[in-house]
Write a structure and sequence with these properties.
This protein is mainly α and 321 residues long. The protein is built from eleven helices and four strands; from the N terminus they run ααααααββββααααα. Strands 1-2-3-4 form a four-stranded mixed β-sheet, with no helix packed on it. β3 and β4 form a beta hairpin. The longest helix has 39 residues. The two termini are 51 Å apart. The N terminus is likely disordered.
C-alpha cells in the first residue's frame, strides 16, 4: 500500500509538479504524450468549430485590405473564383488556419507540459524567459503586415497600369459618336423599391447594379487602361497567409541573433563589423518576401534593420551579464 501511494505522483502529475523530481518510465512517457496530444487536438477541434461558425467575420478580415484598395482605385470590391468548389475550400482553409492560430497557446502549453520534464533547469529558464518575446514578435510581424505593408502593396499594384487601351476602330466609323450616351443614376445604396430591369450606380460600394428576376445583380467593370485586375479568391488568400507567416518568422530576427551569439557561432563585434553585409542581405530577403520594391519592401527592410539592432543589444546585454 505504501509503495502504490509513493508511485501515484509519477503516474498522474499535478498541475504544480516539479520537473526535477518527476520521473517516469518509458510507458508512462508514452501515456503522457498520448494525453497531451488528445488535449491539444481537442482544443484545436473546438477552435475549428468556432471558426467555421464565424465565416463572415473571418473572410471579411482577410479580404478587408483588398476591398479597401479596390474601392480607393474606383474598382468594384469583389473577388472571383474559377472552380465551383473554390469558395468553399478557401473557407475551410481559412477556418483551419485561424483555428490553429487561436488554439496555438493551448497546444504550446500542452507541448511544454510534456517537454519540461526532460529539460535541465537552465534550459527551462531560457524557454520561459524568451518564449513570450518570441510570441510577441510573431504577432507584431503579422499585425505590421496587415496594417501597413499589405495595404501599401495592394495600392501600388492596383494603381500600376499601362495607360489607355488601344483602339482598332476605323477612323471613318462615326456611329459610336452619333449614339446618345446612357447616363446611370448615382445612388448611395440601392433604391427603396427598384423596378425590374432598373440599373443604377451604387457609390457606397462602387458597383453597377440592376434588378433581374427580383434579385439585385452586379455588373463588373474595370479601368480604362490596357490591364485590368481579375483577382482570384484562392490566390489572394494564399498570398496573404504566406506573407503573414513570412513576416511573423522574419520578426524573430532578434532571437536568431541572440541565439547565434549565445551558441558561440559569432560574437557581437563581428556582427557590428558585418553591418553593411547584413543590411544588404536583409534587403535581398525582403525583396523575395515582398515583391513590391517601392513600398512593401522598404516597409519591411526598416523594421528588420531595427530588429537586428535589437538583437545586438540583447546579445551585448546578456554577454555583459
Amino acid at each position: 500500500m505504501t509503495t502504490d501511494t509513493a508511485r501515484r505522483p509519477a503516474l498522474k502529475p499535478k498541475r504544480d509538479f516539479d520537473p526535477d523530481s518527476y520521473r517516469m518510465t518509458v510507458g508512462e512517457h508514452l501515456e503522457e504524450l498520448r494525453m497531451r496530444l488528445i488535449l491539444g487536438l481537442g482544443g484545436f477541434l473546438v477552435a475549428t468549430v468556432v471558426c467555421m461558425c464565424l465565416k463572415e467575420p473571418l473572410m471579411r478580415f482577410f479580404l478587408r485590405p483588398l476591398m479597401l484598395g479596390l474601392a480607393r482605385n474606383r474598382l468594384p470590391p469583389q473577388v472571383n473564383f474559377a472552380e465551383i468548389s473554390e469558395s468553399f475550400m478557401v473557407y475551410i482553409r481559412v477556418s483551419l488556419i485561424c483555428a490553429a492560430a487561436f488554439a496555438s497557446p493551448w497546444m504550446l502549453y500542452q507541448l511544454w507540459q510534456f517537454v519540461a520534464a526532460g529539460l535541465y533547469p537552465k534550459e527551462r529558464k531560457y524557454i520561459t524567459k524568451y518564449l513570450p518575446l518570441s510570441i510577441t514578435l510573431l504577432i507584431s510581424g503579422m499585425v505590421f503586415l496587415y496594417l501597413v505593408v499589405l495595404p501599401l502593396m495592394i495600392e501600388f499594384f492596383l494603381a500600376f497600369n499601362f495607360g489607355p487601351a488601344f483602339t482598332f476602330a476605323s477612323s471613318k466609323d462615326v456611329s459610336a459618336t452619333s449614339q446618345p450616351a446612357v447616363v446611370l443614376p448615382f445612388l448611395n445604396g440601392d433604391p427603396p423599391h427598384p423596378l425590374e430591369g432598373q440599373i443604377w450606380m451604387d457609390k457606397s460600394q462602387e458597383r453597377i447594379k440592376f434588378l433581374y428576376e427580383g434579385q439585385v445583380r452586379v455588373i463588373p467593370f474595370g479601368l480604362e487602361g490596357v490591364a485590368n485586375p481579375v483577382i482570384m479568391l484562392s490566390q489572394y488568400i494564399d498570398m496573404v497567409v504566406g506573407m503573414l507567416l513570412s513576416f511573423g518568422l522574419a520578426f524573430q530576427l532578434p532571437l536568431v541573433v541572440l541565439a547565434l551569439v549565445r551558441v558561440g557561432i559569432v560574437d557581437v563585434p563581428a556582427l557590428k563589423k558585418m553591418r553593411r553585409v547584413i543590411y544588404f542581405a536583409i534587403a535581398v530577403i525582403s525583396a523575395f518576401i515582398v515583391p513590391d520594391v517601392v513600398t512593401g519592401m522598404v516597409a519591411l527592410v526598416i523594421p528588420l534593420i531595427l530588429l537586428f539592432e535589437l538583437g545586438l543589444w540583447l546579445a551585448r546585454d546578456r554577454a555583459a551579464a
